[in-house]
Specification:
homodimer, alpha+beta, Arc Repressor Mutant, subunit A, Beta-Lactamase, Enolase-like, domain 1, five-stranded antiparallel beta sheet, three-stranded antiparallel beta sheet, 13 helices, about 45% helix, elongated, DNA-binding
Chain lengths: ~375, ~375
DNA sequence: ATTAGCACTCGGAATGTGAGAGTGCCAGCA
DNA sequence: TGCTGGCACTCTCACATTCCGAGTGCTAAT
């Protein structure tokens, strides 16, 4: 069932105005802002039909109309005009993205922060989980009681761990172990690292001190970590600025839901190939988000992985502006992280590389 | 100027009761709960004197009294009875702490989460910044276009970075660079890594392709990162459950202040050797926290570093319970991370070790 | 010094009132 | 048939008013 062009115009006007003001909008207001050549009375008729069709709601008899979730959906699908970013906005984004990208996780949370600041909503970033394999082992001999495990994973992630031993070990022993692990533990999935394999290696290495187990345990840990993916949320408190979250309980529900990265990982549901996805209120699987909307854009995180960056806000969200901004940021991230083009120059290399992390020793 | 024992008792009663109920407490209530053998009229007199002394305030003429920041301070210093934790509580803490401590930063944020859940307030964890030096360089040759920088810092932190090159390089060249860096860049403070040193090294290595700069730049980055320390906040939204933060604006101010790790790093002010520190409302340096209180406990993070774990809440905080819990958690962390005892066994080693991180490559 | 009694104050809940915005409907008009 | 102006009706919100009770401060008595 199609609805007339005039209805569409009116619906769009209601949504736009409501997004702007957060107040129910009445027939008169619409007559004033949208110049369709007809009076408020006509619009009243149209409004009541739109209400009957389920696109609009009225909080009470003598208030204006507000869009229903259905109305928002229709707006997002058909009415919304793709917004262009201003020069300054694109400038800001480019600058901020290029600024400092030393670490991947830092980059993710920075990009999230950026999205949050630009849109005024809490932002979230997700990196898709993916099973990885070990690609290469290095064991760096530091001294008789200390060595470092450096593990290069299939997704070009490097993990490391400093190991202190309560006994001495020789460099030759370490080297032998590295060779055995490179032979036996590379390019196999996590579940194939079995106790059988480990004890076989242990025997081959004539390792009586449990070094093999240490390295194997760390390998498993590193693999399972890289399988988990990562999630960040920033700017949770900006929700509180939205009138629809003035109720602290409501805000609390949403924010604490967002604080659990378990929840976040499940948020996107199954992937689609839309570049920008909009989930409106009740469309959310999670109970807690049933009166919030989520807008997410996906980006190419390199090494065949995709990541998501998005924001959470009230139903009355400026979908058009938010979508445009997220899209732009996601494109920027894809450009920075994505595969395809060869690294162009020095700066680029530095940008891409890295990560790292700490190891706390005992002494 | 000393105050009478009875005044102390009354003050303690007011604070305890107000902490419990969040309602101004009147003379009658005190007469009922604290059994000093006197009537409400007497207590009224005492109350008005305590008010004159600045320990109490009244929101308005015909309301009960609430503690002033001064009153809280006096309470914390002299009246508060050190609370014991219940068996279950210590159990929970022990369990949760021992559970999984794979990564240092994960451990920090987990401990924060634990503190937050136990106390019901937003929790923060800080690791003290400390200048570090490079202790050892390793450059792992992967293929003609790829190598890994592994950097062992003075505080036994390991950092790494995967570097992709748009040109080829030989293994010998990489080894030569590693030797040069180990000779010239180890055990010197960050600021001595000057362009002069770098270009000297570059010449010595006959490096015409900028490899030296890449490694030096990464070294500087790693050092400055480890100098920055780290800060986490979790459970921000639990502030919203407190009646004094029902005003979304107020809550928003505090939460967004806490979201900035720059702010957090400066929060503790100069260190004291108290094991638990309490900062009450106006004692906070930060404007934004002037009507919140902060309780922090410090722990031994190993390698001569100290960390802080704390919570933020309203003035009306259960200082006694919160302090006890934080203290216990901090002790647990010290036990797990701290220096002193040698690693006892296998599990212990695994616990202490580690960290790691990711590197995103291009292909 | 302590207490009981009492007048007084003040904030908050409850209630009442009015204004305004917006609707729905109807009758007239193109 | 579709649009418009007019009008009565409804409902909420803001504001004013009232009322109640908790709690104080004071005073006089013990």
């Amino acid at each position: 069932m199609d609805i007339s062009p005039r209805k569409k115009k009116i619906l769009a006007a209601v949504v736009d105005e409501y997004i702007r003001t957060a107040e129910p909008v009445g027939s008169k207001t619409i007559a004033a802002i949208a110049d369709l050549g007809c009076s408020s009375a006509t619009i009243r008729n149209e409004l009541s039909e739109l209400t009957a069709l389920g696109y609009l709601e009225q909080p009470h008899t003598s208030a204006g109309r507000i869009p229903s979730p259905h109305g928002y959906r229709f707006y997002v699908n058909e009415l919304m005009e793709r917004q262009k970013l201003s020069i300054e906005e694109t400038e800001t984004i480019n600058q901020r993205l290029n600024q400092k990208m030393e670490q991947l996780d830092r980059l993710m949370s920075d990009a999230g922060r950026l999205a949050g600041q630009l849109t005024g909503y809490p932002a979230l970033t997700l990196s898709a989980p993916r099973a990885a394999t070990a690609k290469r082992f290095d064991l760096l001999y530091i001294d008789a009681n200390t060595f470092i495990i450096v593990l290069l994973l299939g997704n070009n992630t490097v993990k490391n761990k400093l190991v202190h031993l309560p006994f001495s070990v020789e460099q030759g022993q370490i080297q032998k172990l590295a060779a055995l692990f490179n032979a036996g533990f590379t390019n196999i999935p996590e579940e194939e690292i079995t106790p059988v394999l480990i004890s076989a290696t242990e025997r081959a290495a004539r390792d009586t001190m449990g070094l093999t187990s240490i390295i194997a345990a760390y390998t498993i840990e590193a693999l399972s970590q890289s399988r988990e993916g990562a999630a960040f949320v920033t700017g949770e408190s900006s929700l509180l600025r939205q009138p629809e979250f003035r109720d602290p309980d409501k805000a609390h529900r949403v924010i604490s839901y967002l604080s659990d990265s378990q929840h976040l990982m499940g948020l996107p549901g199954k992937a689609t190939d839309d570049s920008v996805r909009v989930i409106i209120g009740p469309e959310n699987v999670a109970e807690e988000l049933r009166d919030s909307s989520v807008v997410m854009a996906s980006y190419d995180a390199g090494a065949g992985q995709r990541g998501l960056i998005g924001v959470v806000g009230p139903l009355r969200m400026d979908y058009s502006a938010v979508a445009a901004k997220l899209q732009y940021i996601a494109d920027g991230l894809s450009r920075l992280l994505g595969a395809g083009e060869a690294p162009a120059g020095f700066g680029k290399m530095i940008l891409k590389g890295d990560i790292s992390d700490d190891e706390h020793g005992t002494d």
